[in-house]
Amino acid sequence: SVTASDVRLGMQASALTQAVLDHLHYSVGRLPSVASPHDYYRALALAIRDRMEYRWINTTQTYFDLNRKVACYLSAEFLMGPHLGNNLVNLHIEQEARNALATLGHDLDDILACEKEPGLGNGGLGRLAACYLDSLATLQCPAVGYGIRYEFGIFEQEIRDGWQTEITDKWLRRGNPWEIAKPDTFYYVNWGGHTEHYQDEVGCQRVRWIPDRMVKGVAYDTPIQGYGVNTCNTLRLWSAEAVESFDFQAFNVGDYYQAVNEKLVSETVTKVLYPNDEPASGKRLRLAQQYFFVTCSLQDMLHLLELAHAPVETFAERFAVQLNDTHPSIGVAELMRLLVDERRFDWDAAWAITVASFGYTNHTLLPEALETWPLPMFAELLPRHLEIIYEINRRFLDEVRTRFPDDEARVARMSLIGEEGDKRVRMAHLATVGSHAINGVAALHTELLQASILKDFHELWPERFSNKTNGVTPRRFLALSNPGLRELLDHTLGQQWLTEPGLLRKLDAHADKDAFQHDWYAIKLGNKQRLSSYIHAQTGIEIDPGWLFDIQVKRIHEYKRQHLNILHIVTMYRRLKENPALVLPPRAFIFGGKAAPGYFMAKRIIKLINAVAETINADPDVNTRMKVAFIPNFNVQNAHLIYPAADLSEQISTAGKEASGTGNMKFMLNGALTIGTLDGANVEIREEVGADNFFLFGLSAAEVESVKRTGYRPHDYVAGNDELRAVLELIGAGHFSQGDAEVFRPLVDNLTHDDPFLVLADYAAYIACQEQVNSAWQDVPNWTRMSILNTARSGKFSSDRAITEYCEDIWNIRPVTVKA
Ligand code: 26V
Q1: Is residue 148 within 8 Å of 293, Cβ to Cβ?
Q2: Could you tell me if 211 and 236 lie in one domain?
Q3: In whole numbers, what is the pLDDT of the chain averaged over residues?
Q4: pTM for the whole thing?
């Protein structure tokens, strides 16, 4: 029999069955006989949330009682992916949930498929934040994720006639069982207006900000359950609401409709997620979003201090505030404003607290990606913050002049205000000056960061810089998404590998064994079968699971060079057409990824992939040896099917451009071999797995720079390589576009005349390297051995390792056990 407390907390299948029926009745309001799978999804989600709620409250209480320092991870994006499956893994109740649903006549996998994932991020940066929350909870570290509750997340991608179209992501349409609204936890957010300088009662110069607009930020909390522990941390997302006390009637007498309109305008602040890979310049609403979530989060921290009766002076001992890229970097000026203007701290004391609290992670070196805001826009939206930034800058540049006398060029380079063309606030400089710790996200990236965009800062404060190579969570990206492999690993190593991924190394000893290779191969084949069915259902394309699965999934960008991959495909196509007897192991070339809606070239790359796919897949001369497929709407949910099915992982960015990459790690963990350049974390992946088990090609970052310095002429590569020339001509002439020679002209012209990412310079090396892949693939036992070694040596890339480093080197945060 199931007791009342079992219904909320019981971990047995019988208790879960009763809990689902209860929620179906009391929360969803449906009779079991008419309930849809989605109704069952909601009921199960609520039942699982109950089980976390108890741990959640316990966790919060433990942190509070012990006065523990908390890591506050400030991020404009959290790409969480579906919660249900992950929570089942972390609570260890997958099998019980499966049995409970079976009793009710449903299959757990069908129910899991009902969840619409919260796509509150663009790609790597947002997914990294989500992996870090998983690791923080699993490592029992006090932490809160702070971000924005976008009403519309990343757009959904549909492919029509080969082109990307964008559909708004209405993820909240059927409610969100994972969040708990906290209508009483809110803060006011001001905009615009002007400042007044005045003398306070004791004769001090003070500043008052008289804003002319105001909105309210309301908290929505989501529990983040650690794996195998009682710790359940919080993701707190802010949603904008109109301020009801800001009584519109008083301002617009009788104009009810104008008042309602003002409400709509207030609430647009958190309406929609922006693409992170489109130049932000001029997007006022985006700056408004950043300030909105950052001030709510900082006010929340100050409020928590107050609840703990701790003086504001202890802020930096209680909170480690991490800036996930520059998006939250306005926080540096905002904390100064809260301390100096509102709490009447003197400047130096406030500055000491600010610098001791903040850490800044840089995620890109691309100059066009560095955030800067035009001064007039900044002044209109945040007039007081601009004054504060000027004062930070004045004091900072004095320090620079003292350290480096008579070097005004250096002063201009380091200024928080850029003066190339129109004046702009440089957010990376603000984040750097306001932080005691600055880090890059892979060893190579950190080196380049220190040698390029933050060189002057590194010379001034070398001790503030460190590397924190990214990581991914093995719970979601192996245990949840690759159940076959999980079972084999559990059986071979015991379950501890999930929290001690160093144990994966023990697989080395099995890599040569026939029987083990056999099991390994069978699991991979099963995963490829699953993906093949999914691709067929989504696109109609049929792929033989026995073929080599060659996969490139990531945002579409020229620096990631999906078009280099296509040049290889078209090269093979031509070779097969010219020489039907050519021996070529059959391959499926699989792509996925979204393009920023305004990114002309990226959208054309998608069209090209689909055009090449259509031609090749329909051509009986080649389609028994190659197929091409573009999986629409790459997201976390379908990523679960994609990574485990890969034989070959494409990591082919121009060296020096990909800060780290994290997809590369997910592929490796699931036993894919990598073909890649020496870029981002690929360098460390190759170090770990060994050069013999990695397909390396292409120019190094240093060589890329030197080629560019001495004058890169892509046309020389076209002239010097008949095959490359033929491939480009085929694409340009409309062979893949029914004779339309216009569609791909911009792509081909860009490559032959400009080629900013050196696609043509790396083409020959890439083709040669792919030939090595072909020979390696033909030796099945050896390929399988290398596949095993990839998983075996992927331990370094667990987000647990990354988070441990952040805790020890930057945050000074220790784990705390939460009791049951
Ligand atoms: C922004 C922009 C803006 C202008 C146009 C080009 C462009 C390209 C990329 C971006 C994204 C910047 C921030 C970002 O998402 N970085 C990613 O962070 C991941 C997590 O650290 C890392 O693995 C990826 O390599 C890095 O691109």
Answers
A1: yes
A2: yes
A3: 96
A4: 0.97
Residues 446 and 505 in one domain: no
Supply the CATH number for residue 618's domain: 3.40.50.2000
> Ligand 1, atom 8: nearest CA belongs to which residue?
277
3-state helix, strand, coil in the chain (%, to 5): 55, 15, 30
Q: Which atom in ligand 1 lies closest to the alpha carbon of residue 128?
A: 20
pLDDT tens across 390-403, in order?
A: 999 999 999 999 99
219/179 same-domain check: yes
**Which two three-digit tokens encode residue 127?**
């997914």
| 678 and 771 part of one domain | yes
Same domain, 435 and 517: no
Atom 15 in ligand 1: residue holding the nearest Cα: 125
- For the segment 57-67, what is each residue's pLDDT rounded down to a tens digit? 999 999 988 78
603 is catalytic: no
Q: How many domains, the chain?
A: 3
Q: 323 alpha carbon to ligand 1 midpoint, in Å?
A: 15
417 shares a domain with 493: no
Is residue 130 located within the same domain as residue 274? yes
What is the residue range of 426's domain? 67-82+117-469+805-811
What Rg value do the Cα atoms of the chain yield, rounded?
27
pLDDT per residue as tens digits for the range 331-378: 999 999 999 999 999 999 999 999 999 999 999 999 988 999 999 999
How far apart CA 572 and CA 776 sit, in angstroms, is 17
Say which of 149, 216, 554, 686 is annotated catalytic. 554
Is 666 among the catalytic positions?
A: yes
Beta-sheet pairing, 626-631 with 587-592: parallel
Residues 568 and 688 in one domain: yes
Element (H, E) at 424: strand 424-426
Distance 145 CA to ligand 1 centre (A): 20
In a domain, 474, yes or no: no
Is 554 a residue of the active site? Answer: yes
How many whole angstroms separate alpha carbon 219 and alpha carbon 217?
7
Q: Decide if 818 is inside a domain.
A: no
Measured in Å, residue 124 CA sits from the centre of ligand 1 at: 7
